[in-house]
Write a structure and sequence with these properties.
single chain, 490 residues, mainly alpha, Growth Hormone, Chain: A, 19 helices, 81% helix
């Protein structure tokens, strides 16, 4: 549980510190989003490495080694003097989280006897829920009371405790454990494809979608992805069982999992950024705002588990997607004047939807497959959800920048000499600056500068609204593959 708590906390804790990190390094939101995207993408890729690491180093060695590297990365992020080093530390943290998360499940099944595995899974589930629920709040308090650097050190006590327990209780590597050959070619192709694709998306708006760098990296991502699929299709020790996607119902379930991951991590990225940048919340207040939603999602998991035994999985998945789409549709109209409890309510509704659909998605996706493909199916489904988180955050950051700039440009076009409201506002500002003793030469420039800031602020606010709207439409689209799962017998 301690390892899981550390990893899940680290996945979301930095989100509340992003505005402070942007200000500290003078970087744009599209660069800062790599703190979340890099973590999630590395976690998705290295989840596929976990089994080989376990075979090679044994449970104790793999767990302790990954935890130590995770702690080193956390310290590196906390003391870094350049934004690229902070991002690199997050990528390394995500890689270690990708190894530890599946490892924790294996530890439970090896350490706990069969009659106590339910208890072990309950404790594990508590860590999964508790980290995202309380992590942003704790991180927010650390940012306000100390600095953004402190959030990188917050998971360290749990990591140290996990290492101590592993030294005494985790089983060592058994001599008869055979190390299977690992698909290093497939792993390299996957990492290259993910890196090129995410870089293309995040820099397209800034450099221009027709720029040579964007076109070359986009083509590289496409070619690498195709080569990866072909390689995995024919590889005898495939890293990712791509043949399993030949089952239409299972492919549909992975598409739903992708959307669920994008919704969970994308909204966790957008909400704290919105309330801090638009509504002026402190980091701690933005973190506390997410706590009720996290608890609602956690409380929904056992209820959803019971419901999945009684009702078809696609029904629960569709209902969950509908609730989340409704939540995002409602968040698409919030602005600087929206009351905090309204935002809390809509975010909590979305988390209830995710909590309702995710257990049913896990069971329903595997129900479609024959028994000999269950382990491969579980891995592919988890990978799809994690990949959706990385792609979702990346895409939403790009959409936010794109739509904010577009709205600001449209608003700026209306600020002409013929606009009576603008003339009246400028006249008021002239008088205010003059009354404050500002020189006549500076009054005009200061008023126009403040007008420009207001235009940017309005565009930024509407950019957030469009981003939430995109999430709502994505989950409305997820109803289609959910229906295909029903046809496949889920």
């Amino acid at each position: 549980m301690l390892g899981t708590l550390s990893m899940t906390m680290a996945a979301t804790i930095v989100n509340v510190a992003i505005p402070d990190i942007m200000g500290n390094f003078g970087i744009a939101q599209t660069k800062a989003q790599w703190l979340s995207t890099g973590f999630l993408a590395a976690m998705a890729a290295f989840m596929l490495l976990s089994s080989w690491v376990l075979q090679t180093f044994g449970m104790k060695g793999a767990y302790i080694g990954a935890m130590v590297l995770f702690m080193i990365a956390a310290v590196l992020g906390g003391v870094s003097l350049h934004e690229d080093m902070v991002i690199l530390s997050r990528v390394l943290q995500g890689a270690m989280a990708g190894i530890i998360q599946p490892l924790a499940m294996t530890v439970i099944f090896r350490v706990f006897p069969p009659e106590q595995r339910g208890l072990g899974m309950g404790v594990y589930g508590l860590g999964v829920v508790l980290g995202p629920a309380v992590g942003p709040a704790l991180g927010g308090f650390m940012v306000d009371w100390m600095s953004w650097r402190a959030v990188f050190f917050l998971p360290l006590p749990a990591c140290l405790a996990g290492i101590v327990f592993a030294l005494f209780f985790a089983p060592a590597r058994e001599a008869e454990d055979r190390v299977q050959p690992f698909d290093w070619t497939g792993f390299t192709l996957l990492c290259a494809a993910l890196g090129l694709l995410l870089w293309t998306l995040s820099n397209g708006q800034r450099l221009g979608w027709g720029a040579a760098e964007i076109l070359s990296s986009g083509i590289g991502a496409l070619v690498t992805s195709v080569v990866f699929v072909v390689w995995e299709w024919h590889s005898p020790r495939a890293l990712l069982a791509v043949r399993i996607f030949a089952h239409p119902g299972f492919a549909a379930s992975c598409l739903v999992a992708f959307c669920y991951g994008a919704g969970l991590f994308g909204s966790t990225y957008l909400v704290p950024l919105f309330v801090q940048e638009i509504q002026g919340f402190s980091a701690s207040a933005s973190g506390l705002l997410l706590v009720p939603a996290g608890l609602a999602m956690g409380l929904m998991f056992p209820v959803a588990g019971r419901l999945s035994d009684l009702y078809p999985a696609p029904l629960l998945i569709g209902l969950g997607a509908t609730l989340f789409a409704w939540s995002c549709w409602s968040l698409a109209v919030i602005d600087v004047y929206t009351l905090p409890w309204v935002i809390v309510g809509w975010v909590a509704l979305g988390r209830i939807g995710l909590g309702l659909g995710m257990p049913a998605l896990s069971t329903g996706s595997l129900k479609i497959l024959p028994s000999h493909l269950l382990s491969q199916g579980a891995g592919a489904n988890n990978f799809s959800r994690q990949l959706g988180g990385a792609m979702g955050v990346n895409a939403l950051a790009v959409i936010l920048e794109w739509r904010s700039a577009g709205h600001a440009a449209v608003i700026a076009e209306t600020q002409t000499a013929g606009n009576e409201l603008t003339r009246g506002w400028l006249s008021t500002m002239y008088d205010s600056y003059a009354a404050a003793g500002t020189s006549t030469d500076q009054v005009h420039g200061l008023a126009l500068r403040q007008l420009g800031e207001m235009v940017w602020f309005q565009g930024y606010s509407r950019g957030f609204q469009d981003s939430f709207l995109v999430l709502a439409l994505a989950f409305a689209f997820a109803l289609i593959p959910a229906w295909l799962m029903r046809r496949a017998g889920a």
